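Reproducibility note. Readers wishing to regenerate the assembly model reported in the main text can use the exact inputs given here. Chain order matters: entities are listed in the order in which they were concatenated for prediction.
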Amino acid sequence: MEMTRMLLASLLCAVLSAGAGDIAPVAPAEAGVKAVSARGPDRILILRADGANFKETANGLIRELGPEFEIEDRILGSADGAAPSISDPGRLAAAIAKSRPKALVLMDNDAINLYASVQKQWRDTVPFPPSISLMAIRVDKAIGGLKRATGIFYEVPGVTIFVNLRSLVSEPVRKVGVILRPSMADFVRESAKWCKYENIELVPYEIEEDRKDVARAIRTGMRRLGDRDKVDALWILNDNFFLTPEIIGGGWLPALERFHKPVLVGVENFVSTRANFGTFAILPDHYGLGVQAAGMVLRLKEDDWEIDGKPKVEQPLAVYKVLNLEQARKSAHVNQAALVEVDRVIK
Amino acid sequence: MSRTRLARILAVIIIFSISARPCLAGSKVFVFYPSLARPLAIQEALAKKCPGLEITVFGRLTDLQALVLREHPQAILAQNAVLRQFPEYLPRLQGNRNGSATENFVLLSIDKPLEASKVSAADIGVVGMLDRKEMDAFVGNLVSGTPRVNRVTKVEDLLPLLIFQSVAAVLVSEANVREFQKKSQAHLVEAKLEKGKVGLVAAGIRAAPAGTAPNLSGEREVLSALKALDAGTLALLGVDAWK
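Running the prediction on these inputs yields the following structure tokens for the assembly.
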């Protein structure tokens, strides 16, 4: 086992530290003509989960980068033709050694964790390619253990959601309430910082993680946000802790019966006419996410594939908007002309 | 009625239905105009006003490029800079707004305008309406410099790019600046560009391939339908008249 690891480390060290990715095949010398080395396309290794959204993101990335880049798109745990399945750190290390990518694009927490394991096992022995991580829960925390890492948040920031809501309704959107648990407080604080640019105040209501009756706590929180803080809208975070069927049925739905303001969610199903839950859903636009990641790859190339300092995580830019029109009309005056800016209007 | 006569009538109906099929299907028109309106909304509006045409509105350049190669539409509606990427499509109708065939693009930033001397060292956000190299050249011409270009897929993505301070400025039309100012309460300021004029949407008609006769009826069909568009539908294409 140790021997295998040593061999793999030597192989990785040899190909990565020598910058072997830069060496392109040399054209055969012809009579009187010196052989010239030509720089081949830069290789990028995508490591991702399976599924339509991941594929769409990969499409955006691949199309935006174009033929100047050679992309190896690998799905975690799936064999790709002759290439073996990437399912453990050893296989990922071998895939990196073989494909010699300039950078890795890691999609979802499993892919990030796998690359973190590779870096941990061969720490201080090989310079690993830089990575761009996306489509992961709290990507800022997920890449904390990676060297030369950057990424894009998957969570759509509040300010993007609120600015879109503001152009859809006639009522002012100045204060938005949000219920959270302490582990999401830094994310909400970051959102509040951006909201200041748009003169929007984010009003948080925290519920402790060890709280027994979460549904009841939500009802209490909603009363406070609605009656005392008089928020203009409610932002429901994509946090599974608050989105179990029991908590939705016993907490959110009864509380929302008294809350006649727009409810902003991050799941398309929550704005369906049957759900009677959210008013406006804003989700990441996966193709756009891929294009944004491609931009990061291009900048990385301009910087000679170097990432200095602390990991910098970008906010996602492109979003997909779904509006439940009937629900919206119950809570606000909808600006009819702005409906052309919504991807899907549920009537 | 004899069986022979009935058969003849049926044959005539079949022949006419076959020859009428291209007309029923309508000439294909592809549209690519990045704006705040969603492609589907523009497509529905255009299809309603031009029931004789088969209209597809694209939100991404790569999709347009792929389908033009495969389906050879009768016409493409796009800004002049985009239309020039398809040399077999010759501009036949030029969109105008307020009597002009061009609109001004500006550099929009937050709090203070981006100085011309700092453009080449800056990151600039743009909608990727052309391929990367062509887009870099297009931006370079407009801003008279060589900034680092950050591409997005939709016009609306430029506003978060500014708010999150990912770029020093975004390159947008003055019409979009007005829209952004309606949406955002951030202190948006614009820097005018000396060479900031960009051609508005034009309709390019497919030239007949060498050795083939031009599809004049298809061309007439497209041009007359476009000329009949009302002000509201034209506004979705960023124009108010055709010249």
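We highlight two features of this model. The radius of gyration of chain B is 22 Å. The first helix of chain B runs from residue 3 to 19.
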